[in-house]
Amino acid sequence: MLRSAILAAARSNRVERLVETAPVSRNIVRRFIAGEQADEALQRTRELAADGLAVTIDYLGEDTTNPHQAEATRDEYLKLLDALHAAELTPAAEVSLKLSALGQVFDEKVALEHARAICAKASEAGTTVTLDAEDHTTTDSTLDVLAQLRAEFPTTGAVVQSYLRRTEADCRELAVEGSRVRLCKGAYKEPESVAYQTRLDVDKSYVRCLNVLMSGGGYPMIATHDPRLVAIGEDRAKWFDRSPDEFEFQMLYGVRPDEQLRLARAGYTVRVYLPYGTQWYAYMMRRLAERPANLGFLARALRSRG
Ligand SMILES: Cc1cc2nc3c(=O)[nH]c(=O)nc-3n(C[C@H](O)[C@H](O)[C@H](O)COP(=O)(O)OP(=O)(O)OC[C@H]3O[C@@H](n4cnc5c(N)ncnc54)[C@H](O)[C@@H]3O)c2cc1C
């Protein structure tokens, strides 16, 4: 119930204005986001890399409805990749991108062209790109764009969400040689017709998908903070005889940082998802929906605005 209400607020312009201008917002945002500018993302990347962590950087923004904004997002990624390369932070850092920020909502071909330019730049910079998964209405289009990008840039990463009923079948398709696949639970509000609704069903699906990916030919990226699923990931690696360079764990910046370091020190590759940019509202609200303990922030933000 609470999670649904917060995820609905994530799409409300009115709540967005209230939260963005509330004085308490800045502190909590700082915990989950590198900063508003690329140089702050670069600095955080340097620090994480010095701690032995890999990084995937996300330039915040989604659901772009105008072509100029889509072009501006593409250009920001191109500049970011040049800067990462110049700072010798590739290949430890790759980028994650949302096709909806590149115009998928109004023209899939435009989004594909922009994504292609970003993949080409990433390849020049010696790194790669992962396409984030968004709400279920975009899944077919995103997997279709992924297939086209992979024809030229085979290391382009996919993301699948275990809350979707279709995902186990998608994992079977994606678990092939060279295929990088991030498995997460899923962060959007989805109807029962397409998505499991209980935590238990989502977790059971996660384990089934994990089994498919770990037993297949691809490179699984286990994205979760859930201690039980991390332990199952470690167990499956042993079971399927995968060495630490044949899969990785991924976690979000600011979430369970001690666990990130513990896993890295145990010899695993751990990649931190590091967002930056001014459009942090929707991302932030999805993090709050996952962790009701953080809700005091939202209540204070709304109360302080009346
Ligand atoms: C690297 C990465 C990339 C992602 N990319 C996408 C994407 O492209 N598309 C998408 O829809 N979603 C994405 N997500 C979000 C994902 O779908 C989930 O919404 C999010 O990760 C929360 O699920 P969880 O697996 O961490 O478990 P949850 O069910 O949220 O939490 C399970 C347990 O983990 C522990 N835990 C969780 N958070 C904390 C915390 N802050 N402190 C301490 N313990 C905690 C607690 O024990 C909790 O009970 C991504 C997540 C990660 C980590």
Automatic annotation (TrEMBL):
Catalysed reactions, as listed in the record: L-proline + a quinone = (S)-1-pyrroline-5-carboxylate + a quinol + H(+)
Keyword flag Magnesium: no
Q: Which InterPro entries match?
A: FAD-linked_oxidoreductase-like, PRODH_bac_arc, Proline_DH_dom, Proline_oxidase
Which enzyme type, at the first EC level?
Answer: oxidoreductase
**Pathway involvement?**
Amino-acid degradation; L-proline degradation into L-glutamate; L-glutamate from L-proline: step 1/2
Could you name the domain of life of the organism this protein comes from? Bacteria
What keywords sit in the KW lines? FAD, Flavoprotein, Nucleotide-binding, Oxidoreductase, Proline metabolism
Q: Which residues form the Proline dehydrogenase domain?
A: 41-299
State its Enzyme Commission number(s).
1.5.5.2
Q: Which SUPFAM superfamilies match?
A: FAD-linked oxidoreductase (SSF51730)
Q: Which Gene3D superfamilies match?
A: 3.20.20.220
The keyword Nucleotide-binding is annotated on this UniProt entry:
yes
Cofactor field = FAD
Which named protein is this? proline dehydrogenase
Q: Which organism is it from?
A: Dactylosporangium darangshiense
